[in-house]
Design brief:
single chain, 292 residues, 9-stranded mixed beta sheet, 6-stranded parallel beta sheet
């Protein structure tokens, strides 16, 4: 038994390690002396206010929120109605509807960790053995594969697919619709040394809308991957990549141009029409754009 008395100046919490013994098939209490449990001398209201502030700063779920308060009041109201009707049963089965389960909003496998202070969008699924670190923002309808590490403070757009064994460090930003193939690699420091901390020398990497980064490719930090660009498997990117460019090799160089649907383009007089989806493109020097 535990006894808590907040009015006591000290010894507020006492634990009684009573034991129930059975004698002749009847329970017989064997009472024990109380044991004082130390309690931090904090002001409860101050702690509540601090927790409220922390939840706002970290965008985290409070221990007790308005929905929980509504659940409590619903139970109390049901009790009152039951008393007023001579003990009539009053159903509170709809209480579970007050709070949607997280699985109805996004899914995190039980083997994965999403730190407090992360924002995860509706419909996103985070699979086995992954870790989303504090401060990261993940959009809607994303798929995060196995053994993926994201963060801290990484921003990922909507409908992004990150395959197995990918680490996305601070300084990397993925826009909507980016695809990261299995075991591809980002870096965020240009000249890392174990002996020399360089956390203040992070070079930002931007992967723009719809780009594909093939399996086992490596993206050197400080560069931009253009819209709907395609980095072939195993390539090493040492420079910026233009929109709609398909690059391959070490270092990666432009091999051809590719439609936003993923099909290769064939230019005649600087104009190309995709054989698959019919989108029309124009080419000016080393840049390609869609003709509206």
């Amino acid at each position: 038994m535990a006894l808590f008395n907040d009015l006591n100046p000290k010894d507020k919490l006492i634990i009684f390690p009573h034991v129930i013994e059975w004698k002749d098939h009847l329970p017989a209490p064997n009472k024990k002396e109380g044991q004082m449990i130390p309690v931090d001398p904090v002001e409860p209201l101050k702690e509540e206010c601090q927790h409220f502030i922390d939840c706002i700063i970290n965008n985290s779920q409070p221990r007790t929120d308005g929905v929980e308060g509504l659940r409590v009041l619903t139970v109390l109201q049901a009790c009152q109605k039951s008393l007023e009707n001579k003990g009539k049963v009053v159903s509170v089965s709809k209480l579970s509807d007050w709070r949607k389960r997280k699985e109805d909003i996004y899914y995190v496998d039980k083997t994965s960790i999403a730190d407090e202070g992360c924002i995860i969008g509706r419909g996103t699924k985070i699979w086995h053995f992954s870790h989303i670190i504090k401060g990261s923002i993940i959009g809607n309808d994303c798929s995060i594969g196995q053994n993926v590490m994201i963060g801290p403070d990484v921003k990922i757009g909507n409908k992004v697919k990150i395959q197995n064994n990918v680490s996305i460090y601070r300084g990397v930003t993925l826009e909507d619709g980016v695809f990261c193939g299995p075991s591809m690699v980002f870096t965020n420091v240009y000249n890392p040394r174990s002996y020399i901390p360089r956390k203040d020398e992070i070079r930002p990497t931007m992967v723009k809308e719809g780009a594909t980064l093939g399996a086992n490719s490596t993206i050197l930090c400080g560069h931009t991957i253009g819209r709907f660009a395609f980095v072939a498997a195993g390539s090493v990117v040492l420079d910026d990549i233009s929109d709609f460019a398909l690059v391959a090799g070490n270092p990666a160089v432009i091999k051809r141009w590719i439609c936003r649907c993923g099909v290769g383009l064939h230019f005649e007089n600087r104009i190309a029409v995709c054989d698959a989806c019919g989108l029309k493109y124009k080419k000016m020097k080393d840049k390609v754009s869609i003709i509206s």
